Amino acid sequence: MHSRAAQLISTTLLRVEARLAQQALGMDQVPSMPVAQIVEVSPAEPIELEEAPQPETMPFDSFEDEPTPTRLLPPLAARIEAMAARGWTPQMAAHDLRLHPKRIRQIARDYNITFSFHR
What we know:
The protein is mostly helical.
């Protein structure tokens, strides 16, 4: 080993040992951590809630003007119907749903779903 390298290594080791000794001595002078004080808290009192105003009831005759509810489709048919409404082709829907296009067209036929574009 070169003499200069040996000298640098020894001085570095001496500095590191001196710093470790200072840190070890300094640890005795650090004040101890304060102990956490536990404070007793009284339980919360329940709050009286005001009653919400009741909505006005409508006469039974006013419900006649509402539209009839739409038919409920199985989840797959509903997705196919949404895709058809967005202008997708059966092939695009089949690719997205990982089904064969023929199966998509069969489901569309069963639930009266019309695609704007075909094959």
